[in-house]
């Protein structure tokens, strides 16, 4: 088993709706830290993390975002452009992986997050898809939908859903 | 991280609906083997697997099934009784864990599987709940319900759902 190919974990990550600058959402950070702590643990060579950030076109207006970032250096030239928002988000995850020695890749796509995530699962065939979720009640879910519910049903690989805990939930639970 | 407490993984397992004798269902076996292969990998000391088998009272008629089985030996005396069905199921998982050196525990509860699983999550606070599922389409789901969908929404810990693949699906996909 030690020589086997690493377990490829695709993580859908998004920006916080709370802060002005593109920090990772509470549920994305939670899902990421949990995965390192409880799944990867000390076996850093056994896993490769794939970070996918899906931007909704009308919100962000990017044209050219199918780039791949595989190291902190890859982000420098991109930062000069408006694409810096998404790159900044992904940099958070890539920097953290490099610091602890976990292989990773990160990229940005545009589209409907739930559709794009399931499409990327089909394309990349990861071993596992990790999606954070807000843990909303049924009433709140009616209005915002949830990416995680869709992915659990439709993604063609095992899916782990990680809810925020009560103490991580912001004043308005629809925020993240 | 190497000295940290192991990641405690609760797995809901059930019997096959196909064979007469209590073999593990296709989706339970798939979820188990996948967890060993893709999550535990070579880090056998980093994980503890907790196997929960929930029997529906009217189907099985057991009275006394809150026992804990922690090693293959624990099963011997129980085999003399009718409870052997559930014990045989759990023995499959416990034997396999012992063979590869992964710590485990297994027990039987009776009740509604989805309710009991979520109750045991609350009681034991595992790091992760693993549930296999048949991967049924929406039409089939209407008639059989799914334990996994309920657990994703209600269990108070991260949940991983693992669908059977197309080639593992029996002739009648409601079978498992």
UniProtKB/TrEMBL annotation, chains A, B:
Record domain UspA: where: 25-163
One Pfam family linked to the record: Usp
Organism: Rosa chinensis (China rose)
GO molecular-function terms, A-Z: AMP binding
Name the record gives this protein: Putative universal stress protein A
InterPro entries found in the cross-reference section: At3g01520-like_plant, Rossmann-like_a/b/a_fold, Universal_stress_UspA, UspA
Taxonomy of the source species: Eukaryota, Viridiplantae, Streptophyta, Embryophyta, Tracheophyta
